[in-house]
């Protein structure tokens, strides 16, 4: 077995590898070319380099270790945090004719024994293993015997203590790789800011790897945030806009999940609860129904979601404030993995902020961790309160510059604005006079003239800025503070992260040389959406049918289909669902929506024409080609 870690490939060999990879891409996955960024990562993989690839959801991270595993000798171990994720990926690989298996606790003893025998006989190209099992000496010995030479770490942000979903069991992976042998490491994730990336590199790799960071932008996802008013009604409005489509609603607590799912179910929504307090068989049943059926809404805590590979989730709502920007990005990233237009809505309020602040203060975490959590909270609040394009603010949190997107609530003018120069000057003056050592709540009390114990203890009731801001309420001043942070007019000192400073751009506003518009405290009501939701939720069957036709037509417009093509798409989806139910699989394992849309658009009549549709590989062409060609033919005859 060649030592891939030390085997630097020549240019000619790399070209041969890439040509073979493109052929395998077509043969096993039905794609004619790589997605942006994939080729660069694959070239490094074939060169035997260690890799950290940060790529957005839907960009094809998994192919960066799956394709090399298919065409190179040896065995690739894939570390995955969830059994459900292992199951789905193995199922999809087998559907495509790739030898893959998963070793986990859900398998029966006899199943695991068969897989272990298959590993010894070289039957598999990839084996998925949970980190808890991988640290076992017998598992390492088995994989060493099976010729494992690549360790792929999926959801690699779990390695970092600074990541939003740190898993302690991931911390042993570097030692595991060393124990099994001199392995190539390929780590992939969709969510890792600069500190998290640095921590992954330090914790996982013996030397600095090749690091690839693709754009974090998901332009097909519409971003929106609202202050909490009537949470249930706000969520219902979003669901009503997506009747018959799948979505996820996140709640901060199990109690919130139970209450909201019961309320939605009582109003006719196919809503299922999911949280760690439910029995495992109930969680599995609800997850399977969500994956296999359209129109199901999962109401869940953050226990649900990592690795969920359902491509046609059309909306994600947060009924409560997420944990951080990274968590927010990861969770909304479960929408629109097929690249089609999808919606998000995040609700936030003062109670959310106070709860999160209290959780941080009362936790047993060390001081450095608490400081990090406070910084993350400030960054999230800046995103909630931003006066500029929401996508610009989100991407800036990951170090990426961008132009206004036109696909968020701020760009669409859903929030009113006012001349904010004087308000900004008052905040920045308060920061300056308190040496930048105090946060938004303290500064809000200072500006409105509220002589709290902290204000008087520090003598801030004697400052000239005490009471100069009575025109706004404390919550409004906190909003202004976070807007200035989002606009990069104030920032946390890079050398002293507990200290706020006024940036050069902020100083221009402070001395009156730059204009500034700030966002007012309440987003404008979407009257059309509210009326539509009320009709759908409260009216009779005729109104429901009208709305369903409208929603279905909207989906066809989103996919760029004509009415005739849309009728064919509906027939193709019905047949796919019939097959999926018979095989007890999720529909997207048969074909993604994007493939069915391609078929509806191209209307192939032969297998040669069908294999030209993006995403139809030889294995699926052979297994399902005749079935779906018959639907096309029958549909044409019917017209």
Provide keyphrases for this structure.
3'-5' DNA helicase activity; 50% helix; alpha/beta; disordered N terminus; DNA binding; globular; 7-stranded parallel beta sheet; 639 residues; Arc Repressor Mutant, subunit A; Rossmann fold; DNA helicase RecQ
Number of helices: 28
CATH superfamily (homologous) name of the largest domain: P-loop containing nucleotide triphosphate hydrolases
The amount of helix comes to: 40-55%
Shape: globular
How many domains in all? 4
Structural class: alpha/beta
Overall average residue pLDDT: 85
The major pleated sheet works out as: 7 strands, parallel
How large, in whole angstroms, is the Cα Rg? 26 Å
Strand order of the largest sheet: 3-4-2-5-6-1-7
* Gap from first CA to last CA: 59 Å
Beta-strand portion reads 5-15%
Q: Unreliable stretches, pLDDT < 50, 5 or more residues?
A: 1-8, 525-558
Total number of beta strands: 18
The first-level CATH class of the largest domain is given as Alpha Beta
Cofactor: Zn(2+); Mg(2+)
Domain Helicase C-terminal: 234-378
Enzyme class: isomerase
Domain Helicase ATP-binding: 42-210
Q: Would you write up a description of this structure?
A:
Helix content is 50%, strand content 12%. With 639 residues, it is of the alpha/beta class. The chain folds into 4 domains: 11-213, 3-Layer(aba) Sandwich (Rossmann fold), CATH 3.40.50; 221-397, P-loop containing nucleotide triphosphate hydrolases (Rossmann fold), CATH 3.40.50; 417-519, Arc Repressor Mutant, subunit A, CATH 1.10.10; 560-638, DNA polymerase, domain 1 (Orthogonal Bundle), CATH 1.10.150. Helix 24 (563-583) crosses helix 28 (618-638). It is globular. Mean pLDDT is 85; it is low at 1-8 and 525-558. Its cofactor is Zn(2+); Mg(2+). One of its GO terms (cellular component) is bacterial nucleoid. Residues 42-210 form the Helicase ATP-binding domain. This is DNA helicase RecQ.
């Amino acid at each position: 077995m060649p030592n891939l870690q030390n085997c630097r490939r020549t240019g000619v060999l790399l070209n041969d590898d890439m040509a073979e990879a493109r052929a395998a891409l077509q043969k096993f996955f039905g794609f004619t070319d790589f997605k942006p960024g994939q080729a660069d990562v694959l070239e490094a993989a074939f060169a035997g380099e260690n890799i950290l690839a940060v790529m957005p959801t839907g960009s094809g991270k998994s192919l960066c270790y799956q394709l090399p595993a298919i065409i190179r000798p040896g065995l690739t171990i894939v570390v995955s945090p969830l059994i459900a994720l292992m199951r789905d990926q193995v199922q999809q690989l087998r559907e495509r004719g790739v030898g893959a298996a998963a070793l986990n606790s859900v398998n029966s003893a006899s199943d695991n024994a068969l897989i272990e025998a298959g590993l010894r006989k070289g039957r598999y190209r990839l084996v998925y293993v949970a980190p808890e099992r991988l640290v076992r000496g017998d598992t390492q010995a088995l994989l060493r015997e099976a010729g494992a030479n690549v360790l792929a770490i999926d959801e690699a942000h779990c390695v970092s203590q600074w990541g939003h979903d740190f898993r302690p069991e991931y911390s042993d992976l570097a030692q595991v790789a060393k124990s099994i042998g001199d392995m190539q490491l390929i780590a992939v994730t969709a969510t890792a800011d600069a500190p998290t990336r640095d921590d992954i590199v330090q914790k996982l790799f013996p030397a600095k790897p090749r690091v690839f960071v693709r754009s974090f932008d998901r332009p097909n996802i519409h971003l929106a945030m609202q202050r909490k008013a009537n949470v249930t009604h706000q969520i219902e409005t979003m669901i009503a806009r997506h009747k018959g489509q799948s979505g996820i609603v996140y709640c901060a607590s199990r109690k919130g999940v139970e209450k909201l799912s019961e309320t939605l179910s009582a109003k006719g929504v196919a809503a299922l609860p999911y949280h760690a307090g439910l029995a495992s068989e109930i969680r599995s049943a609800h997850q399977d129904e969500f994956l296999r059926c359209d129109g199901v809404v999962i109401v869940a805590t953050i226990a649900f979601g990592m690795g969920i590979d359902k491509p046609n989730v059309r909306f994600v709502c947060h009924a409560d404030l997420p944990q951080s920007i990274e968590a927010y990005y990861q969770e909304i990233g479960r929408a629109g993995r097929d690249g089609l237009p999808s919606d998000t809505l995040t609700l936030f309020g003062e109670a959310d902020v106070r709860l999160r602040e209290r959780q941080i203060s009362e936790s047993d975490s060390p001081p450095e961790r608490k400081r990090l959590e406070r910084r993350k909270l400030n960054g999230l609040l800046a995103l909630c309160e931003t006066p500029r394009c929401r996508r610009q603010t989100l991407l800036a949190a990951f170090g990426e510059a961008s132009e206004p997107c036109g696909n968020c609530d701020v760009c669409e003018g859903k929030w009113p604005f006012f001349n904010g120069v004087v308000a900004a000057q008052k905040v920045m003056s308060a920061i300056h006079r308190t040496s930048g050592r105090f946060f938004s709540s303290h500064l809000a009390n200072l500006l409105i003239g509220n002589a709290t114990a902290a204000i008087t203890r520090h003598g801030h009731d004697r400052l000239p800025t005490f009471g100069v801001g009575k025109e706004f309420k404390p919550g409004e001043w906190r909003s202004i503070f976070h807007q200035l942070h989002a606009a990069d007019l104030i920032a946390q000192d890079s050398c002293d992260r507990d200290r706020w400073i006024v940036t050069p751009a902020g100083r221009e506003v402070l001395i009156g040389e730059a204009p500034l518009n700030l966002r007012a405290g309440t987003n404008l009501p979407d009257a059309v959406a509210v009326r539509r939701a009320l009709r759908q939720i409260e009216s009779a069957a005729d109104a429901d049918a009208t709305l369903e036709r409208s929603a279905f037509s909207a989906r066809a417009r989103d996919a760029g289909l004509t009415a005739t093509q849309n009728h064919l798409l509906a027939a193709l989806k019905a047949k796919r669902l019939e097959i999926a139910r018979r095989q007890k699989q999720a529909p997207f394992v048969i074909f993604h929506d994007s493939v069915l849309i391609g078929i509806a658009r191209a209307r192939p009549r032969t297998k040669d024409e069908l294999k030209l549709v993006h995403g139809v590989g030889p294995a699926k062409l052979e297994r399902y080609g005749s079935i779906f060609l018959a639907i096309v033919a029958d549909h044409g005859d019917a017209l």
